[in-house]
Amino acid sequence: SFYYGTFPAGFLWGVGSSAYQTEGAWDKDGKGPSIWDAFTHNKGKVFRNETGDSACDGYYKVKDDIQLLKELKVNHYLFSISWPRIMPTGIKTEQLNEKGIQFYNDTINSLLENNITPIVSLYHWDLPQVLQEKYGGWQNISMINYFNDYANLCFEKFGDRVKHWITFSNPWAVAEMGYETGEHAPGLKLGGHGAYKAAHHIIKTHATVWHSYNNTWRSEQQGMVGISLTSGWGEPVDPHSQTDRDAAERYIQFHLGWFANPIYRGDYPEVMKNYVGRKTAQQGLGTSRLPTFSVQEKMYIKGTSDFLGIGHFTTRYVIQKSFPVLQVSSYHTDRELAELVDPKWPAPGPKWLYSVPWGFRRLLNFIKTQYGNPIIYVTENGVSEKVQCTQLCDEGRIEYLKGYINEILKALNDGVNIKGYTAWSLLDKFEWNKGFSERFGFYHIDFKNKNKPRYPKASVDYYKKIISANGFPNPREVANWHQKAMDICSTTHQLLATDSLITRMEMVTEIILPTAFTLCILISIVLLIFYLQNH
């Protein structure tokens, strides 16, 4: 049932985005290529062969977008730094890009001038392409030192003003989709071992960066370093069945526990080690496909997080499912489970993203129990529309936010240590291999218009009301928010329709006038030649 009440005083409200998805300017002002530049320029990898070359033109619209943040009345903005924008080859000793460093300095300063706290992710998937080509990216242990150099440069240049650092945003997707299925950059299909190896190096890198900050920068800068892990919740189909309960536990441990367990408890989850080890032995391989940490590494990694960032979007029902031993090994078959959904769950956007708010509270309580109730910042939570027509009256998003934020409020009452919430995302943006077909933004962008104008959706007004009230004060007021948001979006729709018409007319003018002018000249030349021949 819905719970009316308010969040603790000082609870942080924010919104987020990432560099590659929004900045554009992929080769401007000295930026080097990233693996996503290379991946999207390779035809057939992304829906409609779309790219983030210009994305939302965020590189040129920082001031405009900060005005949107002010309009939303958020306390913080979570964004990522593009590694190749400040270090074009990814190697500190080779080259630094001062224009890139200046861009992030200006962004941070503008946010602070407007009383908005920057929360900065060092890595939201855009590895410098040179490191992929030279070393194989996250398959190579040398990434630890290169990334640590990059992180230390960021602490040096920005750490006097940035007090919340995230080392990696959703490393599960980096490992599993980048090196196992190949759906994401760099597009490698190293089934059965690629994802485990990438994750192993990412976890070690995270720990190295945390220790760097702790030893060199913490006493002077007084900031925090954490990691942002994205995970769904797995619910047993039959809660009375031990087999289903075990399968649901594996779902979480193979997803969240894969990264959180080493950081909070010193090693991979036992169930992961057992299942991958057993599968490896059945295949006749000597050592487990899941790498191992030495005793020293376990001690070095354990405790390397000042807070835990949590991204969460949806829930699955889970049952046990065995796969034949002879089948090609993969992360997915190692888990020995199947994921199901309830057809009654609302799916306002794409078919993977069902709205199941109660799963969030269960996930947050699981974290509290498993990892000693760490400080939690929700770093990504939101829903997309997958519609061809413009959707400014986004009722699906309003209902999703209302439900999921309410479950955070319940989790706080359960004693979970949640300090802030980041809605995902500020803008409609480039959604990786889905291109621009999914829209997560509070602000709609007309990507056909070369100026990339931003238009507020109804959810802007609704989220603003939640922030102002610091929660959900009473039924009458909350119902009133919904109606007001719908009224405002109708007006914005009319504005967008007018602007779209003008854009189409401009496009027609840009194409037709030069064509007509050229035709007139050609006809005049033909007539002149004809006239001269007759005389």
TrEMBL record:
The chain crosses the membrane at residues 511-532. InterPro entries: GH, GH_1_N_CS, Glyco_hydro_1, Glyco_hydro_1_AS. One of its GO terms (molecular function) is galactosylceramidase activity. It catalyses: beta-D-glucosyl-(1<->1)-sphing-4-enine + H2O = sphing-4-enine + D-glucose; a beta-D-galactosyl-(1<->1')-N-acylsphing-4-enine + H2O = an N-acylsphing-4-enine + D-galactose; a beta-D-glucosyl-(1<->1')-N-acylsphing-4-enine + H2O = an N-acylsphing-4-enine + D-glucose; beta-D-galactosyl-(1<->1)-sphing-4-enine + H2O = sphing-4-enine + D-galactose. It is an enzyme of class 3 (hydrolase). The active site is at E380. Its EC number is 3.2.1.21, 3.2.1.45, 3.2.1.46. Coiled coil: none annotated. It comes from the Eukaryota. It holds the Pfam family Glyco_hydro_1. Belongs to the glycosyl hydrolase 1 family. Klotho subfamily. This is Cytosolic beta-glucosidase. It comes from Pterocles gutturalis.
